[in-house]
């Protein structure tokens, strides 16, 4: 049984993530926790939360029943951002009911242990118990849930953590599109408490996502982009009040507050973040990642600072991390926590993971082991207040980037990838080759390409970044199409 994808369990509520599944997973999680009680484990208590989806209350009721009948104490937290649930799971366990950026017809289940998503071993233990219909606990071990409200503690944690970066916000103007998701009670609050002047779009929680699609993309963020661009039209240094303040965004000659320094877009559960510049253009996700990765690397006192990212992430990250004196390690999509654990398992005294991220999703390791879009918003805001967004981006070389999909039947993916492990290096003999997570080729001019099978659709994905990206993609596509035809 394969329940878990790259980000927990996720799917339609009418045929996959049903109350029956939630009940079974809850019971299985309880059994798995009880079975491991003699190991070095956190408190077996489970904090249970959900996002704002219409189907969340029913799934939460079923999950609570399964956990309680599974013999573990349940702390019912209600609607929360996913990073707030992760924060609340420190020292215990956590269950988050969310489909993240998926449409309102979907929902999902994410499991946490001591602030970190379940690893594959724990996921397999749950899958096995669901398949075997894990028994309920003895009747006198069933539990009654209690109510908790961990949001305030989480917001204070983010505020205190972000205060270690950049400059005070002091009226920095920021537009935040919450997308009717769970960032609404989080990101605007934190930024205002840090001193920002915040204007929100789609700032109420509504599980129908009436304002825009839950996935923040250049298309779904069209209103935010236009709002920021229109507000900044004719403004030379937007985003600061008339008395200026620190940072490149200050304009001491302005008569009044005008425009926005930048904009923020979140997904439904506030683990993803998209940054929009003062012109209303989306800043490439790998540029945002590179800026943060370089900052964390430079700030570290470790002799061997490491940034963990994924195979589809840009070479611009490697360039900035190398420039700052660190190195990059890559891990499969959806497994940043496993990559962090693997580096730590090396045991080198002077090696330290300083940041981990994949496009749109960031783990601020010194803050916690979870993906946190709210923390990213706060840290980025303080960096922008200190230097301005343009100055932060300036050192990053932004080469053209493309992603294409080549049709491939699911049952042919394995043989196609086997062929490509030989065919791609033969076609590009000058490239350095890495086959840990698909086939990644890196070239001397900092161009690169990655070919990997989709985990959810009948495609092989081709990612490429190069000054001649169209030519590179066309050449790689030819090799991939030949391999598919021969399978």
Précis, in short:
With 487 residues, the chain is of the alpha/beta class. It has helices spanning 19-35, 56-69, 82-88, 120-131, 151-162, 187-193, 222-232, 285-299, 315-323, 336-345, 373-387, 389-393, 413-427, 469-486; strands at 9-12, 46-50, 74-79, 93-97, 106-113, 116-117, 146-147, 173-177, 197-201, 262-266, 273-276, 304-309, 327-330, 351-358, 361-363, 401-407, 432-434, 439-442, 448-453, 459-465.
What is the second-level CATH architecture of the largest domain? 3-Layer(aba) Sandwich
CATH topology of the largest domain: Alpha-D-Glucose-1,6-Bisphosphate, Chain A, domain 3
Q: Structural class from helices and strands?
A: alpha/beta
For the largest beta-sheet, the strand count, sense and barrel status come to: 7 strands, mixed
Which value, in Å, is the CA radius of gyration?
23 Å
How far is it from the N-terminal to the C-terminal residue, by CA? Answer: 26 Å
Proportion in β-strands: 15-25%
CATH class category of the largest domain: Alpha Beta
Tally of structural domains? 4
């Amino acid at each position: 049984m394969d329940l878990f994808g790259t980000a927990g369990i996720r799917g339609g509520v009418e045929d996959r993530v049903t109350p029956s599944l939630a009940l079974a997973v809850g019971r299985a999680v309880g059994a798995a926790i009880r079975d491991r009680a003699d190991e070095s484990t956190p408190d077996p208590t489970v904090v249970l939360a959900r996002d704002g989806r219409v189907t969340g209350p029913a799934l939460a009721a079923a999950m609570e029943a399964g956990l309680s009948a599974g013999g573990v104490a349940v702390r019912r937290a209600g609607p929360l951002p996913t990073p707030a649930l992760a924060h609340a799971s420190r020292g215990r366990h956590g269950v988050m009911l969310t489909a993240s950026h998926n449409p309102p017809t979907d929902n999902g289940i994410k499991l946490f242990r001591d602030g970190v998503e379940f690893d594959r071993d724990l996921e397999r233990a749950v899958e096995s118990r669901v398949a075997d219909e894990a028994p309920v606990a003895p009747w006198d071990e069933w539990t009654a849930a209690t109510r908790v409200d961990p949001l305030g503690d989480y917001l204070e944690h983010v505020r205190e953590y972000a205060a270690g970066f950049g400059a005070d916000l002091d009226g920095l103007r920021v537009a935040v599109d919450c997308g009717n998701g769970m960032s609404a009670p989080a990101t605007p609050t934190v930024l205002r408490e840090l001193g920002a002047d915040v204007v929100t779009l789609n700032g109420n929680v509504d599980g129908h996502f009436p304002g825009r699609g839950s996935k923040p993309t250049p298309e779904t963020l069209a209103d935010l982009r236009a709002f920021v661009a229109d507000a900044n039209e004719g403004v030379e240094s937007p985003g600061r009040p008339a008395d200026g303040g620190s940072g490149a965004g200050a304009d001491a000659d302005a008569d009044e507050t005008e425009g926005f320094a930048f904009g923020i877009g979140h997904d439904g559960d506030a683990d993803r973040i998209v940054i929009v510049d003062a012109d209303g253009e989306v800043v490439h996700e790998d540029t945002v990642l590179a800026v943060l990765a370089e900052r964390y690397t430079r700030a570290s006192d470790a002799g061997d600072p490491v940034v963990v990212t994924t195979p589809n992430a840009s070479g611009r990250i490697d360039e900035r991390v190398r420039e700052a004196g660190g190195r990059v390690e890559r891990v499969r999509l959806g497994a940043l926590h496993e990559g962090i654990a693997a580096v730590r398992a090396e045991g080198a005294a002077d090696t330290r993971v300083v940041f981990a991220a994949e496009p749109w999703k960031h783990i601020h390791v010194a803050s916690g082991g979870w993906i946190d879009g709210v923390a990213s918003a706060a840290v980025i805001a303080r960096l922008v207040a200190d230097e301005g967004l343009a100055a932060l981006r300036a050192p990053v070389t932004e080469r053209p980037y493309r992603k294409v999909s080549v049709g491939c039947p699911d049952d042919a993916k394995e043989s196609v990838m086997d062929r490509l492990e030989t065919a791609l290096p033969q076609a590009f003999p000058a490239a350095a080759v890495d086959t840990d997570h698909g086939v990644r080729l890196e070239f001397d001019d900092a161009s690169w390409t990655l070919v990997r099978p989709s985990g959810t659709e009948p495609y092989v994905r081709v990612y490429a970044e190069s000054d001649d990206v169209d030519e590179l993609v066309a050449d790689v596509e030819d090799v991939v199409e030949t391999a598919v035809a021969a399978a």
